[in-house]
Design goal:
It is built from eight helices and no strands. The radius of gyration is 21 Å and the shape is elongated. It has a domain at 25-43 and 81-151. The longest helix has 27 residues, at 112-138. It is mostly helical.
Amino acid sequence: MKYKFLIIALLFCVSAKAQTATNITPAHLKAAENVLSASGAGNQLKENMAAMIQQASANVPADKKPKFVEIMNTFMNKYMSWDLIKDQMAALYAQEFTEKELKDLAVFYQSPLGIKLNQKQPILFQKGAAIGQQNVQSHQLELQQMMQEAFKDQ
C-alpha cells in the first residue's frame, strides 16, 4: 500500500510539473531569452567555465596541466556549451519568473547599472571562489579531522 501511495504521489508531481511547463507561452519564453541575452549569460557561462577549469587545474602537476585543461575544455564544449543549454535555461527562467518580471529584468540588464553588473560578474565570481577556497584551506585540518571522526568506525 505504501508503494502505491508513493507511485501515485510521484505521478501527481510529474503531471503537475508538466502542466506548469506547458503553460509557458511563446512570448513568455521569448522574454526569458531576452533576459539571458541582455544579461550576457552566454559569455558569463564561458568565463565561469574557464575560471572553474583554471581553478581545478591548480592541483594538477605542471607537466599534465595543459592536457588536463584541453580535455576539460573539450568536454565542456561538448556538453555545456551555451548553444546546447540556452533553450533549457530560457525555459528555467520562464518557469521561475513571470513574463513581466522577465521584461523588467531585461530593461535592468540594458541599463548602465545592469551593464556594470555584467562586466563585474566574472571578477566577482573569481574573487568569491578564491574566498571559498581560502576558507576551506585555512580550516582543512579541521575538515580532515571531522571526516576521520565520522568514518572511523566504518
